[in-house]
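Lab notebook: predicted structure, single chain.

Context: the supervisor wants predicted structures on file for every construct in the current expression panel, including those that have not yet been purified. This is the next one on the list. No modifications to the sequence; it matches the entry in the shared construct table.
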Amino acid sequence: MKRTINKIIIFLVFTLFFVGKQEALSECFSWNDVVDKYNAYVGAQNNWNDVMACYTEYVTLNDAFVSTTDYQTGHFAAINLEDQSVNKYNLNLSSDAVAKTINHRIYVVNRYGQDNITVFSPTDFSNPLIQFSTGNGSNPQDIVLSNADKAYISLFQEKYMLVVNPNTGEEQTRIDLSSFADSDGFPEPTQMVIVDDVLFVTLQKLDRNTYQPAEKGAILMIDTKNDSTIGSITLSGQNPYDMAYSEFLDKLIISETGSFNDLSDGGVETIDLGTRQPSGFILSEEDLGGNITDFAMKPSSSQGYIIVAEGGISGSPNTFIASFDLVQAVKLKDVLRPNAGFIHAGIATTSEMLLVGDRCIPEEECGYKPGVRIISTLTDEEITTKPINTGLPPLSITVY
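Prediction complete. Output recorded below exactly as produced.
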């Protein structure tokens, strides 16, 4: 084994200087992931560029981009995860902006009110590479790329999926989603992932008058080779909130909130990509302790972390972070549970860290400024002694 590892190191060091820009692979967060990619290469199951892209992603997840907001103004901050230093930027984002990392670029989805996509290079946050509109009032929710020249954008206020060139913002086509809507004609698409040329999209299917769930949520499937819809999967619950693809499990993972007024109608379920059948709730909201929202998985693991709200819309706003295991189908423990008045927003993982946004305000009641907390995923103990101050309170976090 030692000889194999040394051989990999020699290959990596020698080749790194000769590999051009590659599309980032998912879940390349640890050295074991790099070894797995290398072993697949040896077994002719992938190519050398896959190994190098995995290695590049593994060694560069040392920083975090944090969108921040007081719900009137939006800014962002960049955190060095090694020394916890932070740079705060006053460039205006939407007051409801979420960010994600794709191919070592930061894509900021400026949602309702700004309705655009802003793209940054981590080498220079002082000016965006490009900003382009998704249409006035369209309320973009997420963006994914099928290749360097083609991106899909989900629009909450429209009945179609927008397809653009992410380098220019030029519209390529629109995919009609109206046949997958509930009775009000809007399907409310939000989160997306692409696996093996299939785009999977969560459909919340909300009543436009009350924004309560109108029917069970669904996962829409789109063939990215020809941009045609190929069906949908009905979920066990309503109002799918977050979704991720786990290469380790080869499954989609979905958190389904249901109604925010009901602390017992949601849960976490998976979809097997071989059968495309939902599992049913592996963990319910009652198991986890409240309404569930965003989650993040440990790399190469069946374990993850999820934000749980205790009181619903009309009750206590307190939130906490719980860990869980999808194979064992259990809640593991409460990882971060403040006493009162705490609202978490933004969650992300690296190979050894969990990053959580702490929006506790006002400062005189919390005793500290809002920011990002870092927890070890090896011990579940907090690394930070207080939140890393991000200026405005954090809303979303992505590592790069």
